[in-house]
Design brief:
heterodimer, A: about 300 residues, mainly alpha, 2 domains, about 0% strand, flat, B: mainly alpha, MetI-like fold, two-stranded antiparallel ribbon, 2 strands, ABC transporter permease (chain B), transmembrane helix (chain B), MetI-like (chain B)
Chain lengths: ~300, ~300
């Protein structure tokens, strides 16, 4: 043991007593527990909490990071039109994508739940593939599907006399494409969560509802949705955070273009902070994600705790 | 409305009336019909990757039917798998992922055990903190982290930026909170009698963890491992920001920066690279689907 090696002159009995007391201390539950969580605490403190506050500090510096400039980075942002464009686009992007992901996930989960249990595994397996592929890789496939001159979609649509559609060239279509890819990636997650929730709704409730003469819509509205409310809330809020902070899809598909019309906070912060080497301004941009993330996080925490107490 | 027909018979499946069972058949048919549509939507991009990867560049630029391969060739695969650069990306990705998975499990399993079983001062707050950390996206932290590592490089001379091993420090911030969180759930579901019996038999806390909790919660450990691997394999932002030299890049960034040269897109090779990059998570998913889904749903539902 370490303490013995450090004190070779002490008498053996003393050493033994000392060792046993240290030993006891080390064996104490709280000490062991603390040592077990220490790496986790260090990791969170140095690589999550510290950088978060460091970002606040960085946001108050000038471009060369030598001088304290207070809030002038924020003032500068507020005066820029692009900033408000980014705010608007981030909100449109996150809200539209989350709504459609939730709707689509709900519908698909119902269909999967509807078919015989034997085949469900196979369908679930196929429908979850978009979630499994790394988003950076699958977005490349979408980029190729949207290619201006060789687009496979436009090729197909040309048989119906539609198009050619400028998938990533026109601001509106580019926004549509970015949201579409996001829905494609994210809907399977909702599907899996809702499917798990649907399976946990007791069959008796539907039987009781059927006896009371509830129609299809009433059964969903008065039985399914209330039973799934918590899981719907958690999943939606969680997805809102992830979607709002999305980077991969927008970066690869449009890189913010055409003319900044698809930039969202993360991609714009990257453009300014890393590509444009204006770290303080980039940090200020990314800090604007904090309020909405914090609100969503508080609600998630409340729901998760509520769930914990129920069980 | 189509959806109305679909779900009409769902809840009454136990009732065996003649008309009901006919409704049920129709509901099934509609379900399958829509599932096929959704499956096509889901699988179009990966299948299109595969189609394009089998085409030669001549066939791609000839703009024939994009959904069909007229002259299948493996030249893209041969080209990539014999290129040292691409193999380097693959190797870097594999090394980073394996190390990150190991680091993650070494940190999160003991921590989860302590948080789930050994109440100590602040343990409840810490558990909540872990969950909150999981909600902090990487897009919020990459700029301060970049500056932090640059400053560390200036002060100590330890060069971290543009070295692949910087990712070993960064990725655990994404994987550890979630893995700890789902392991807390799995550990908490183990009956208290088990570890009490072990303690009475004279086992230390460490022994209780390694001899009892880890074997019993093994499915959870597999789910957490899969999650850590997929996240570190798929991560795009951190390598894009922190590594730039071609020999330090990992797969996703490597494919995008090296195969896209200016405005020249070599689509055959890009799609082949994307498919090879998507292969490891897909293979794991194909074999361990149930663990994958268990991990996915455990995150929000809490065990």
């Amino acid at each position: 043991m370490v303490d013995v090696a450090l004190q070779p002159n002490r008498s053996a009995a003393q050493a033994a007593r000392k060792r046993s007391s240290l030993h006891r201390m080390l064996k104490r539950k709280s000490t062991v527990a603390f040592l077990m969580t220490l790496p986790l605490i260090l990791l969170i403190a140095t690589l999550v909490i510290y950088p978060a506050f460091y970002a606040l500090h960085l946001a108050t510096l000038n471009k060369s990071m030598e001088r304290f400039v207070g809030l002038s980075n924020f003032e500068f942002l507020f005066r820029r039109e692009t900033f408000w464009l980014v705010v608007k686009q981030s909100c449109i992007f996150a809200i539209t994508a989350v709504i459609f992901k939730a709707l689509l996930g709900f519908i698909i989960a119902h269909f999967v739940h509807n078919i015989p249990a034997k085949g469900q595994r196979k369908w679930r397996g196929m429908l979850l593939v978009p979630w499994v592929i790394p988003p950076a890789m699958s977005t490349l496939a979408w980029l190729w599907l949207f290619d201006p001159s060789y687009s496979a979609f436009n090729y197909t649509l040309s048989f119906f006399d539609i198009g050619p559609i400028p998938w990533t060239g026109d601001p509106m279509w580019a926004r549509f494409s970015v949201i579409l890819v996001n829905i494609w990636v994210g809907a399977p997650f909702f599907m899996i969560m809702y499917l798990a929730a649907l399976k946990s709704v007791p069959e008796q409730l539907y039987e009781a509802a059927a006896i009371d003469g509830a129609n299809w819509w009433q059964r969903i509205w008065y039985v399914t949705l209330p039973m799934m409310r918590n899981i719907i809330a958690i999943t939606t809020l969680f997805s809102l955070i992830v979607t709002f902070a999305n980077f991969d899809i927008v970066r690869i598909l449009t890189a913010g273009g055409p003319l900044d019309h698809t930039h969202i906070f993360a991609t714009w912060a990257f453009r300014i902070g890393i590509e444009g080497s204006d770290i303080p301004l980039g940090a200020s941009v990314s800090l604007f994600m904090v309020p909405i993330l914090a609100v969503a996080a508080i609600f998630i925490l409340r729901d998760v705790n509520k769930r914990g107490n129920e069980s | 409305m189509t959806t109305v027909t679909v779900d009409k018979a769902t809840p009454t499946r136990k009732v065996k009336y003649g008309s009901m069972s006919r409704d049920r058949t129709w509901a099934l048919r509609w379900s399958y019909f829509f599932l096929v549509i959704f499956a096509i939507f889901s699988l179009t991009p990966p299948i299109y990757m595969l189609i394009t990867s089998l085409k030669s560049s001549a066939e791609i630029s000839a703009a024939t039917n994009p959904w069909w391969v007229f002259h299948p060739t493996l030249e893209n695969y041969v080209g990539l798998l014999t290129s040292n650069q691409f193999l380097r990306f693959f190797w870097n990705s594999a090394i980073v992922s394996i190390f990150v998975v190991t680091i993650t499990m070494l940190i999160s399993v003991p921590a989860a055990f302590a948080l789930a079983r050994m109440r100590f001062w602040g343990s409840a707050v810490l558990a909540t903190g872990v969950f909150l950390t999981y909600l902090i996206p990487e897009t919020l932290l990459f700029i301060p982290l970049f500056k932090m590592f640059a400053v560390i490089g200036d002060w100590t001379g330890i060069q971290l930026i543009n070295r692949w091993y910087v990712l070993l420090i960064l990725y655990p911030t994404l994987t550890v909170p979630f893995c700890t969180w789902i392991m807390i759930g799995y550990f908490a579901s183990i009956p208290k009698e088990l570890d009490e019996a072990a303690i009475i038999d004279g086992a230390s806390w460490i022994q209780t963890l390694t001899r009892i909790f880890i074997p019993v919660a093994f499915p959870g450990i597999i789910a957490a491992t899969i999650f850590a691997f997929t996240v570190s394999w798929a991560q795009f932002l951190y390598p894009l920001v922190f590594t730039t030299s071609t020999d330090q890049l990992v797969m996703p960034v490597g494919i995008i920066t090296s195969l896209i040269k200016g405005d020249v897109f070599n689509w055959g090779q890009i799609m082949t690279g994307a498919l090879l990059g998507a292969a490891p998570p897909l293979i794991i998913y194909a074999f361990l689907m149930d663990y994958y889904i268990a991990g996915l749903t455990a995150g929000a539902t809490k065990g």
